[in-house]
Amino acid sequence: MHPDLEAHLLHCRNLPSPPAVALRIIELAQDPGADLNATAQAIGVDPALTARMLRVANSPLYAGRRRVDNLPQALTLLGLNATISLALGFSLAQGMRGSGDARDQERIWRRSVLAALAARLLGNHAGVKRLEDLMLAGLLQDIGALALLQAKPEEYPALRTQADGNDALLSLERAAFGADHAEVGAWLARHWRLPAYLADAIEGSESAPVADDAFQACVQASGVIADLWLAEGDVDALRERALALVSACAADGTRLDDLLVRIATALPEISAMFDVHIAHPGHLAAIADHAKELLILRNLREIQDAARARSEAQASEAQVRQLTEQSRRDPLTGVYNRLQMEEVLEREFATAVALQQPLSIAFIDLDDFKHINDRHGHLVGDRVLHQFAQTLQRMLRSTDLVARYGGEEFLVVLSHSNEASASRVLQRILEETSRMPMAEVDGKPLYVTFSAGLATHGTGRQFADARSLLAAADDALYGAKREGRNRVSQHGQ
């Protein structure tokens, strides 16, 4: 890049810099030891970014059969690499939309968002594994134009008005500044210490297609497809160029018309994610309609086959779900078994750590249960266990979890509950248990009591892992038994 332009950019006060959250995400992108917990903490400080990540996790591009309601679920669904790429894109997009000519900014962002979507869809057909990285490269390929808009607020808007299309703009940029917006964007990406693949993709976005580089080819094609979508007037030349680039990228033979239909389908959701309005151009309506007709005819038989296969799969899936659920439950009480609860506890602990929320667990042991079995028989003992499990479920929140840990021992997990609130809940259950008979023997009610050990992560003490928290609750349970049973004992007290 020309030294004069570089010096001007370096000393430009209006040139935006990445927001603090973007800087942290850039660090994570460069850190081979980064994990989902660290990423969740970085994203969680920005409510707007958190909302966007939840929205993208529930979008048609990523959504599964279950709705994603919280950030840890979203990050788990998306995966670490996709999360970092998407979060970086959202945060940089927000940071770059600063001062300057709002109309030109929106034009640039419309092209950027279209290119991001086109790049991802093309990459899917080209067999590119890093779809979110590709989407980010498509989104950022025009950051150099935004930088020039800020650094040259008087010259650059006039230059853009003068240009008839992107190719003409590139020529005018080189003549006026000694570099085009792709070179400026690559310089800015390196200045911000973005991952090297992004700087390289931005720099090559306006170059001739590179052989055997599907990633770069998709980025290059995405910009042309965006230009075709946004063009006014004669689009024949752009369409021919887009046709050639799509044919070169798509290993599965996807046509440009099919791609435009897919863009039209996904565009409302993507536009909402990036807060930019992109209209459907009239000159593409005939193309899209024709493509839709072909797709309908082509897929009629596939739809019929898919419906039949779906019915068979649903029946099989229902059976698998039933068997899976049975394997997770204690057959006598209907609550979770020990193995399932240990898996659940690990997830709940990780979520509590990531969101910096309290998590309480309680070990509960029925007092003198052996005496019930010895005196009244195991059938009565089984009725007591069943009734007690039902009592626990009835008195806990729907978000709380209960498991039979073994014999007459139960484990309760109280999410988002500090020590005080968890203690109050257990005390209410203790009082209710003493008043409510758990079985009837010879027409007489049979009452039981229990001892409980409570441990909480996140308020007074931080535990290293779920196993340590479990051990603390177990120690507290033994404390309750030593103190005379029929009570709740808190760890550390």
Defining traits:
alpha+beta; Hypothetical protein af1432; 2 domains; 5-stranded mixed beta sheet; two-stranded antiparallel ribbon; 22 helices; 7 strands
Number of strands: 7
Overall average residue pLDDT: 83
User: What is the quaternary state of this protein?
Assistant: single chain
Which CATH top level class of the largest domain fits? Mainly Alpha
CATH architecture verdict of the largest domain: Orthogonal Bundle
CATH topology of the largest domain: Hypothetical protein af1432
> How much of the sequence is in beta strands?
5-15%
Briefly note the structural class of the backbone.
alpha+beta
Please provide a written account of the structure.
The chain has 22 helices and seven strands. It has 493 residues and is an alpha+beta fold. The strands form two sheets. It has a five-stranded mixed β-sheet, sandwiched between helices. A two-stranded antiparallel sheet has the order 4-5. Helix 3 crosses helix 18, helix 4 packs across helix 5 (71-78) and helix 8 (131-140) crosses helix 14.
Question: What is this entry, summarized?
Answer:
The chain has 493 residues and is an alpha+beta fold. The chain is built from 22 helices and seven strands.
